[in-house]
Amino acid sequence: MRLIEMAHEGDKEARDRLVTENMGLIWSIVRRFTGRGYDPEDLFQIGSIGLMKAIDKFDMSFEVKFSTYAVPMITGEIKRFLRDDGMIKVSRSIKEMGTRVKCVREALNFTLGREPTIEEIAGEIGASKEEVAASIEAGAEVESLYRTVNKNDENSILLIDKIEEENSAQEELLNRMVLRELLTELSDKDREIIVRRYYYNETQSQIATRLGISQVQVSRLEKKILKQMREKI
Fold this sequence. Notes:
Arc Repressor Mutant, subunit A, RNA_pol_sigma70, RNA_pol_sigma-70_dom, transcription
């Protein structure tokens, strides 16, 4: 608990020690996902991100052990990676670069207290800015489809949840492809509403201010657009 408290106060050594001392926990979870065609080292790196998130978000008032809190965080991070990976095929070198960039990005975010620049990430891992940018972009589109959105609203949802779909993996992949196609068919205004609402996580009120219309109008337009997208599907 003292190490976590020190990490929350910005002590990098305490945070690194927590990560080191919990490597066994990460590996125990990684072993659950062996045999799925992924390098265990890659899954370990992804699990490490989940552990760092658990360290940063752990509430000292929780009446649970840190490991009890960390396990679902680590597991969730790996599951998100397995779920999102592979929708857009990229070279192995870019994939490996993306994993390194994600880890360094998390570490710099904690150390600097802000989102690091591409230049800072590139300098940390010894790669060019172009390589870092390519690795970030390679995973950005798929991730955005399943990111929690409308966090400022009463009910948080996923964009995919707004489009009726089958549960099978093949249907899920097809719907993602169809969704991308539907977005290109929308008018500029309709597409802006959907993109701002579900990709930029803006509230209806924020969109209304940008477009110079009322929040009620945005709500009606959103429902109309989603209905049209469902009908086309």
